[in-house]
Amino acid sequence: MSTRTQRIAVIPGDGIGLEVARAGVAVLEAAAAAHDLALDFAWFDLGADKYLREGVTLPDAVFESLRDDFDAIYLGALGDPRVPDLQHAKDILLGLRFRLDLYVNLRPVTLLHPELTPLKGKTPADLNFVIFRENTEGLYAGVGGRFKRGTPDEIAITEMVSTFKGVDRILRAAFDHAVRHGLSRVCMADKSNAIPHAHGLWRERFTAVAAEYPTIEARHLYADVLAMELVRAPEDFDVIVTSNLMGDVLSDLGAQLVGGLGLAPSANLHPGRHGLFEPVHGSAPPLAGKDVANPLAMILTGAQLLSWLGHTAAGAAIDAAVSRVLVRGETTADLGGSLGTQACAEAVIRQLVG
Ligand code: IPM
Ligand code: MG
Q1: Which of 180, 193, 324, 353 has most Cβ atoms within 10 angstroms of its Cβ?
Q2: 0.85 surpassed by pTM
């Protein structure tokens, strides 16, 4: 039972974002009713339509409200072919990650149904790890520039930024997660063999931080080797911690090991301060408005949001309800079912309250 109403900002965004956000909020409302939680939802019109209509992406006043007035942000997807440079998506999604300093991008990889993995002989016991992706630095920092633009002599430079503070805090977040959840192994993946400065720092800080967690088995792998190992022996991993771009790539690989982007949730966190929850998938413009998009990633993301707000039982109940609809085949077409987006969400709600 919560003592006060918790406020959730919903940003449906573009494309299938609106449909999956409706589905996700319907499930959260059902979970709130079933678990006696006081949640309040405020919908924000941010995205390509607003950008094309008004020329604004994330106005300061809206940013400040998202920062100050809400307990969590629940975001559908951003991306629209009418905005080819994706300016609005950069300002809103990357903007919120950077401006709220959401340095943890937590992406769980969990096999919810044995038939969903393309890996021969692997079971749900083998496929259960989390990726801690650094979310505020690396090649995403936006440092760089272009020189002699548009000429054959053009030079384009993007700097990879790794800071002692930035690397330490994501490493600690990964180890702390392992301790809190009774997990015994943390693997850090970098390319320090090819990127000696930025990733050399990762390597050094990993050794130093790992020494503070003597009960956890700390392993280092180069990121390319990790990509291979995740396919060969995913059971060897509990917690993976890595830099921004490596984590972007590895989390898509992880998603496909357990059924694809339609089932991949993610949380962008500044622990103790802010949380923005978004499915790993994008806005899938060709699917938009047809009631065919898979809402389960958004629904599982909602479960992460509830757990983060302190409602772990309600979050776990949503996860369990999603597992049951997968067993029952009550899914959208991408997973072999015949339901539409909203009907799939209703099937989850039936399992949740039934
Ligand atoms: C993700 C996405 C984003 C990223 C894009 C849309 C900028 O791929 O959240 O994984 O690269 O972080
Ligand atoms: Mg990605």
Answers
A1: 324
A2: yes
Residue 146 burial (C-beta neighbours within 10 Å; 0-12, 13-18, 19+): exposed
pLDDT in tens, 72-103: 999 999 999 999 999 999 999 999 999 999 99
Which residues partner with 221 through β-bridges? 189
The string of pLDDT tens digits covering residues 195-241 is 999 999 999 999 999 999 999 999 999 999 999 999 999 999 999 99
Ligand 1: nearest atom to the Cα of 244: 12
Q: How far apart are CA 209 and CA 168, in angstroms?
A: 7
**Do the Cβ atoms of 272 and 280 come closer than 8 Å?**
no
Ligand 1 centroid to residue 248 C-alpha, Å = 6
Nearest Cα neighbor of 177 from 243, 248, 240 is 240
> How many whole angstroms from 170 Cα to the centroid of ligand 1?
18
- In ligand 1, the atom with minimum distance to the C-alpha of 94 is 7
Return the CATH class of domain 1-101+273-354: alpha beta
Q: State the CB neighbour count (10 A cutoff) for residue 305.
A: 27
Q: Where in the chain is the domain with CATH 3.40.718.10?
A: 1-101+273-354, 105-260
Residue whose tokens read 């030079």: 155
